[in-house]
Amino acid sequence: MIHTGIHPTAVIDNQGICEMPDTTIMEAGAIISIGSRGRIQLGNRNILYPQVSIRIDQGWMLTGDEVSFGSGCQIYEPRAGLEIGHHCLIAGNVSICGVKHGRMDPTIPMRQQPAENLPIHIGDNVWIGMGVIIQAGVRIGSGAVIGAGSVVTRDIPEWAIAWGTPCRVQRMRGNGHFMAHLEDGPLRLHLGCGPRFIPGFLHVDAQPHPHVDLVADVARLEMIPDASVDLIYASHVLEHFGRWEFRGVLTEWRRILKPGGVLRLAVPDFAACAKLYYENGLADGLNGLIGLVCGGQRDEHDFHRMIFDEPFLTHELVGLGFRQVRRWDWRDTEHADIDDYSQSYLPHLDKNRGTLMSLNLEARR
């Protein structure tokens, strides 16, 4: 055991770029191997305990200050990048792999299948338990704790305590650190908020926009206690779930609503789309119909998988235990000045003479 510097049996095989401050500690048998297209940059006071193995033939790895890697940790080929924040504890025998090997074509030998390179991000102050496996493409939020032996296949939000195979959020540290933003006020969630910020709401989205309070899948809100939310607002979110999925999503949202709490939905109005198509087809000026039905398709999250009209969605909400289903007018809400898809009109932006293309329904638990 050493307390400073690099142990005589530690190995640094560097053909690329290696930036290690003098405060780095590498204990017996630790190995860093960097190829000609690889890069590693360690923060201050990083510790590599015995038998840690880091291989970067191509790609890069960046760590913050005071990060420790327990004995036997393996980091393999973060080709699309591995970023680890400050003050992280990574226990022994943790494996982090930045490559997903192909397997879909049975006519190609397994070792010749094309690989998929995906980035991995681990936030500040994260504790990863013994023997955890972290797969490519995963984001672990700051303050999270990952239980020993877990296999992390999907994103884990900030301040979550998660474990299992696959790893799932079990509860939140401090009873949901993100809820502290509201102090004693009503809890109002803006689900699938994207780039839009509404004052007085907590924002939940799969993408880490600057205003997002919780980076999470809006269909999996295990970190939010039962019957704790006063209002849920989800504008043009539900249609992104398939015909066999959307009921489960609505059930999850109902779970977190207080008795009497409000679910405020906006979805593309298929009846309005059908009417305009019958009258004008897909003529110039009405090509917005394609986006309403199919999604903008600008990224992997921007595809629609379900259609709704008022009778159908009302029937589904009532069947799931909601009550008092009614239309709502965006002009009468606290977010009337936020130009989101609940205010979708054709012709585009003609809110006085155009046709409202969004079906806006509210229901109570």
Brief summary of the model shown:
The protein has 365 residues and is mostly beta strands.
What does this structure look like?
This protein is mainly beta and 365 residues long. It folds into 2 domains: 11-175, 3 Solenoid (UDP N-Acetylglucosamine Acyltransferase, domain 1); 178-364, Rossmann fold (3-Layer(aba) Sandwich), CATH 3.40.50. The protein has 4 helices and 30 strands. The strands form 5 sheets. Strands 1, 2, 4, 6, 8, 9, 11, 14, 16, 17 and 19 form an 11-stranded parallel β-sheet that branches. An 8-stranded mixed β-sheet has the order 3-5-7-10-15-18-20-21, with no helix packed on it. Strands 24-23-22-25-26-30-27 form a 7-stranded mixed β-sheet. Strand 25, helix 1 and strand 26 form a beta-alpha-beta unit. The chain is elongated.
The tally of structural domains comes to 2
Shape verdict? elongated
Distance between the termini: 60 Å
What is the rounded Rg?
A: 24 Å
CATH topology of the largest domain: Rossmann fold
Count of helical regions = 4
- The CATH architecture name of the largest domain reads 3-Layer(aba) Sandwich
Tell me the helix content: 10-25%
Features:
about 375 residues, mainly beta, UDP N-Acetylglucosamine Acyltransferase, domain 1, Rossmann fold, 2 domains, eleven-stranded parallel beta sheet, 4 helices, 30 strands, elongated
Topology (elements, then pairings):
Elements: E1 11-14, E2 17-19, E3 25-26, E4 31-41, E5 47-48, E6 53-63, E7 68-69, E8 74-76, E9 82-84, E10 89-90, E11 95-97, E12 99-101, E13 115-117, E14 120-122, E15 127-128, E16 133-134, E17 139-140, E18 145-146, E19 151-152, E20 160-163, E21 168-172, E22 188-191, E23 202-205, E24 214-215, E25 229-235, H1 246-256, E26 257-268, H2 270-280, H3 288-294, H4 310-319, E27 323-327, E28 345-346, E29 355-356, E30 358-364
Parallel strand pairs: 1-4, 2-4, 3-5, 4-6, 5-7, 6-8, 6-9, 7-10, 8-11, 9-14, 10-15, 11-16, 14-17, 15-18, 16-19, 18-20, 22-23, 22-25, 23-24, 25-26
Antiparallel strand pairs: 12-13, 20-21, 26-30, 27-30, 28-29
